[in-house]
């Protein structure tokens, strides 16, 4: 069997939080990261346009990378298109969806906050997770318009505006009958990049749930169960980041990808 070839996909840099966990879990794997940065942010896209976009970009990436497993390291994409990509491409896919089940298991106050993109909070998939696993809790969902971009800016070396951050997270910190939100789900893979700053401006301490370690364990299990044929063509090297923008549209992001383990950019304009 050849080395495990794993394609990680997100709209931007958020999936790097998942890539980091996968690299720790599977240090010998061949990792290729892909960001549909020409489509970023996904949070505001219309549902049917986004599904078509994701199917198109993932199809092109699969041809190029010949992965054994694809990780959709994006809640906004997974909650809307996971079923369709599984149907369209006969490969194992691991998705990322808001960690509502573990949040319901961990909360003591029964009050959970979910920070995600406006797209993710509007999805039926997300509401079904709450209905199934957190029906006995009070769940405050907030579609944060700017958090993903603030996280990208941080990785590009810009300072984080803490007042803006405070406003973006405030809606999930609630009090009810003497009890407070005690668990906050980071329902977008970009948000763990900001967890220190979020904790700094939060009105009280809570547990923040980042699903990356659980996703990495799942990827390892799927890799174990999956045949790993040699690639037919020449595939991008380990550490490649594939971007959908023209080269000039990403120059300020390349150092951030390199610092997170993906120093080899390839442009696949879309
Ligand atoms: N990282 C993505 C997620 O997990 C989406 C960010 C965006 O494109 O708005 O939802």
Structure description:
- The protein has 270 residues and is an alpha/beta fold.
- The protein folds into 2 domains: 5-96 and 213-267, 3-Layer(aba) Sandwich (Rossmann fold), CATH 3.40.50.1860; 100-210, Rossmann fold, CATH 3.40.50.
- Helices cover 40% and strands 18% of the residues.
- The protein is built from 11 helices and 12 strands.
- Strands 4-3-1-2-11-12 form a 6-stranded parallel β-sheet, with helices on both faces. Strands 6-5-9-10 form a 4-stranded parallel β-sheet. Strands 7-8 form a two-stranded antiparallel sheet.
- Helix 1 (16-25) crosses helix 10 and helix 2 (47-65) packs across helix 3.
- The protein is globular and about 60 Å long.
- Residues 10-12, 14, 40-43, 74-76, 117, 120, 148, 188-190 line the site of D-glutamic acid.
- Category from helices, strands and their pairing: alpha/beta
Low-confidence stretches: none
Q: Profile the largest sheet.
A: 6 strands, parallel
Q: Helix proportion of residues, in percent?
A: 40-55%
Number of strands: 12
> Which outline best applies?
globular
- CATH topology of the largest domain: the name is Rossmann fold
Mean pLDDT: 96
Strand content: 15-25%
CATH class of the largest domain, anyone? Alpha Beta
- Cα gyration radius (Å): 18 Å
- The CATH architecture category of the largest domain equals 3-Layer(aba) Sandwich
How would you write the strand order of the largest sheet?
4-3-1-2-11-12
Order of helices and strands: EHEHEHEHEHHEHHEEEHEHEHE
Bound molecules: D-glutamic acid
Oligomeric nature of the chains: single chain
Number of DSSP helices?
A: 11
How far apart the termini lie comes to 33 Å
Number of spatially distinct domains = 2
